[in-house]
């Protein structure tokens, strides 16, 4: 304190005490200073533009800051001033104690540094930075803050606040660097992150120097703050780009490595190291021909030298004997040397060889003309056809060349939906499964065929199909069905006679029992009762046999398209009612319920006998697969367009797989509770009959939950 210029003023700032240091500093003697107003004598103003200094002095009884004052000779000095209020015994302000210290030299150095910074801010984002160690007070220069879009102009308060927002990039490193600078006096260099008012981050490099007081103690650090954001962003982008490139190269299925002009490996990805069976550490910096001597004297060495000398990229496939593998290789000359990427294509080459062998076999099959083969477009144009297909359709190669073969135009209209489904399957899955249809040959005759195919070119698209002539098989089937029809007729003739004889025997026994007045002996009655049961069993068996023969005949007629329908306007409700009543009589005690709609008249155009046959078959199946005590329900429903007949049972139900095949010819569901003989023809016949009536059939079933079979028929206007 003895070196400070000491002044005591009254509350009106009249000077009452003026020590020697003040006289020496300002040039005014005690006699000249005493009684003068302090701030007028020294023309005092705030060095840091602090208008609230007096207010804070009165409020807090003390103030500390930097002032700009004028000496007697007119020279300006920068003063570090500490001012305190002295109060009387009643705690009223009595005097002001002022202790001033000349810091002009220090401020000149700081100003010179700021001036240097100002000269460079036009080309670089550089500003002044200072840190007062004594009060831990930091500031950032206006220049750099303005450059960072933080301040529109000089604002000391915000400059101080901005300095406080600096965050060290590495806190531990910052503390170590500060301590080192304070202890040794060496320059301080560190990096901070600054967030501007727009929430944008900036990287600031701080370069500072330590300043000491008269006792050689550090009191301040000053220096420059440089905006290195662009540099750091470029470094980060470059790092990210390198990382991204490294990630891409490491994720490639291809092996990749770089060679310099001396054939040294400068980079190798993991796939390349894996194929060479060496680690990346073992390869980097090594001469490729020395580190992998198996490549010497091979096509790989030959092509590498050719690519470097010609400065042209090369692509080739080669077999490498040491590994017995095929490789697909790309060589690209660069300014630094050569980039190489290659891939193991052994599996592909083996597949290619196998495919060529398969193509050879397939071509041999096509050329053998065992089956028909075609390449065709989706619009129907046939591009290629082998001799077998041309023979099936009775066309010539000249007709094919003239564009006369179109699979759409030679297909009967009833198969259009099958063709459309095949095209849809081709586009969705690339193949269409085998199905049967017919073609018109050149003479207009129908030719039954079986065909299947696959798509071979997606851009057009183009499909390949194999076609099998089913004419011999269809002829054989017709002969078989004709034979079955003849056999059925021959079987039914004696069966009719047997059935008649049994019924005649039953009537004669009944007449005998009715005409004898006296009671028969008990043993005779027992014998006659057993005889009646045997006759009834025989009669039932003849009915079963007759039904089986009728099914066989119906299937035969359907197969050779000889089943004729006699269509006439009818009431479907009446047909169902009559059929149910007949079955209630023949089936005995098995309950059959009937549920009819409010609209009793359901006009349909049908063959009454055939629809009754379908209803009877549905009900008979339900009875066979149900417990005798559990009822079977027959239901008729109707909407605006169609009537539907349902038969519900409570049997074991059908699995999903069984439901797919239940309408197939000769298919029988596996159910141990089923009684009687079943050829698996009934439901197949029902389906064909309903389809001939332009109706539909279906089943809804769950295993162990029963089944509901249905068929629908279109309604017709009344009067038809």
Protein model, in words:
With 720 residues, this protein is α+β, with helices and mostly antiparallel strands. It is 42% helix and 28% strand. The protein contains 23 helices and 29 strands. A six-stranded antiparallel beta sheet has the order 2-1-6-5-4-3. Strands 8-7-12-11-10-9 form a six-stranded antiparallel beta sheet. Strands 14-13-17-16-15 form a five-stranded antiparallel beta sheet, sandwiched between helices. Strand 21 and strand 22 form a beta hairpin. It is elongated, with a radius of gyration of 55 Å. The N and C termini lie far apart (130 Å). The model has no long low-confidence stretch (mean pLDDT 81). Keywords: Kinase, Phosphoprotein, Transferase, Two-component regulatory system. Residues 486-717 form the Histidine kinase domain.
Outline:
The chain has 720 residues and is α+β, with helices and mostly antiparallel strands. It is 42% helix and 28% strand.
Q: What key attributes describe this structure?
A:
Sensor_kinase/Photoreceptor, alpha+beta, 29 strands, transferase, 720 residues, 6-stranded antiparallel beta sheet, 28% strand, PAS, two-component regulatory system
Please outline the helices and strands.
Elements: E1 5-9, E2 15-18, H1 20-26, H2 30-33, H3 38-41, E3 45-46, H4 53-60, E4 62-70, E5 76-87, E6 93-102, H5 104-120, E7 126-132, E8 137-140, H6 142-147, H7 156-164, E9 167-168, H8 171-184, E10 188-195, E11 201-212, E12 218-227, H9 229-251, E13 255-260, E14 265-268, H10 270-276, H11 280-283, H12 288-291, H13 299-310, E15 314-320, E16 325-333, E17 337-344, H14 346-367, E18 372-377, E19 382-385, H15 387-393, H16 397-401, H17 416-429, E20 431-440, E21 446-457, E22 462-469, H18 471-515, H19 522-559, E23 568-571, H20 572-586, E24 592-595, E25 603-606, H21 608-624, E26 632-638, E27 642-649, H22 656-661, H23 682-692, E28 696-701, E29 707-714
Parallel strand pairs: 24-26
Antiparallel strand pairs: 1-2, 1-6, 3-4, 4-5, 5-6, 7-8, 7-12, 9-10, 10-11, 11-12, 13-14, 13-17, 15-16, 16-17, 18-19, 18-22, 20-21, 21-22, 23-25, 26-27, 27-29, 28-29
Helix pairs in contact: 18-19, 19-23, 20-21, 21-23
Enzyme class: transferase
Protein name: histidine kinase
Domain PAC: 61-115, 188-240
């Amino acid at each position: 304190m003895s070196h400070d210029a000491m002044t005591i003023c009254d509350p009106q700032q009249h000077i009452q005490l003026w020590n020697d240091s003040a006289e020496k500093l300002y040039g005014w003697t005690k006699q000249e200073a005493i009684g003068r107003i302090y701030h007028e004598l020294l023309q005092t103003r705030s060095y840091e533009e602090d208008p609230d200094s007096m207010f804070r002095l009165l409020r807090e009884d003390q103030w500390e800051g930097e002032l700009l004052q004028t000496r007697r000779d007119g020279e300006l000095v920068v003063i570090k001033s500490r001012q305190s209020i002295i109060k009387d015994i009643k705690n009223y302000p009595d005097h002001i104690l002022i202790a001033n210290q000349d810091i002009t030299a220090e401020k000149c150095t700081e100003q010179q540094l700021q001036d240097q910074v100002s000269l460079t801010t036009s080309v670089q984002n550089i500003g002044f930075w200072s840190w007062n160690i004594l009060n831990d007070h930091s500031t950032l220069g206006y220049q750099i803050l303005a450059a960072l879009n933080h301040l529109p102009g000089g604002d000391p308060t915000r400059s101080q606040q901005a300095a406080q927002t600096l965050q060290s990039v590495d806190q531990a490193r910052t503390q170590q660097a500060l301590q080192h600078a304070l202890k040794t006096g060496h320059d301080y260099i560190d990096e901070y992150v600054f967030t501007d008012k727009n929430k944008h981050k900036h990287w600031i490099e701080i370069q500072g120097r330590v300043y000491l007081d008269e006792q050689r103690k550090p009191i301040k650090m000053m220096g420059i703050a440089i905006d290195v954001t662009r540099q750091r962003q470029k470094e980060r982008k470059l790092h990210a780009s390198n990382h991204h490139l490294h990630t891409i190269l490491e994720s490639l299925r291809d092996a990749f490595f770089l060679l310099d002009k001396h054939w040294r490996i400068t980079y190798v990805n993991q796939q390349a190291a894996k194929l060479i069976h060496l680690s990346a550490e073992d390869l980097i910096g090594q001469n490729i021909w020395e580190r992998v001597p198996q490549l010497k004297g091979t096509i790989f060495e030959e092509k590498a030298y050719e690519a470097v000398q010609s400065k042209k990229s090369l692509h080739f496939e080669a077999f490498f004997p040491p590994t017995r593998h095929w490789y697909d290789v790309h060589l690209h000359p660069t300014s630094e040397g050569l980039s190489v990427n290659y891939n193991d294509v052994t599996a592909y080459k083996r597949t290619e060889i196998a495919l060529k062998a398969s193509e050879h076999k397939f071509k041999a099959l096509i050329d053998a003309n065992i089956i028909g083969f075609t390449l065709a477009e989706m619009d129907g144009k046939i591009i290629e056809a082998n001799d077998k297909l041309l023979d099936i359709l009775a066309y010539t190669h000249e007709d094919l060349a003239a564009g006369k073969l179109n699979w759409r135009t030679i297909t009967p209209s009833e198969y259009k939906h099958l063709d459309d489904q095949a095209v849809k399957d081709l586009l969705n899955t690339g193949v269409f499964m085998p199905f049967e249809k017919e073609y018109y040959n050149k003479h207009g005759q129908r030719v039954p065929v079986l065909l299947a195919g696959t798509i071979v070119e997606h851009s057009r698209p183009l499909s390949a199909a194999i076609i099998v002539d089913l004419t011999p098989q269809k002829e054989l089937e017709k002969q078989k069905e004709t034979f079955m029809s003849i056999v059925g007729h021959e079987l039914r003739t004696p069966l009719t006679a047997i059935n008649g004889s049994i019924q005649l025997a039953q009537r004669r026994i009944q007449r005998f029992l009715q005409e004898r007045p006296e009671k028969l002996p008990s043993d005779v009655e027992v014998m006659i009762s057993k005889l009646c049961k045997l006759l009834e069993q025989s009669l039932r068996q003849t009915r079963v046999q007759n039904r089986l023969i009728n099914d066989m005949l119906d299937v035969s007629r359907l197969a050779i398209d000889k089943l004729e329908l006699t269509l006439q306007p009818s009431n479907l409700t009446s047909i169902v009612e009559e059929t149910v009543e007949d079955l209630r009589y023949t089936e005995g005690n098995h309950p059959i319920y009937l549920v009819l709609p409010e609209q009793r008249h359901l006009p349909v155009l049908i063959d009454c006998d055939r629809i009754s046959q379908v209803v009877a078959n549905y009900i008979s199946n339900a009875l066979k697969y149900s417990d005798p005590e559990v009822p079977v329900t027959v239901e008729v429903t109707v909407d605006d367009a169609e009537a539907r007949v349902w038969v519900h049972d409570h049997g074991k139900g059908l699995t999903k797989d069984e439901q797919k095949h239940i309408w197939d010819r000769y298919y029988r569901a596996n159910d141990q509770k089923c009684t009687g003989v079943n050829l698996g023809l009934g439901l197949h016949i029902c389906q064909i009959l309903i389809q001939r009536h332009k109706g539909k059939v279906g089943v809804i079933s769950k295993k162990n939950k029963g089944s509901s079979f249905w068929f629908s028929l279109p309604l017709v206007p009344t009067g038809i």
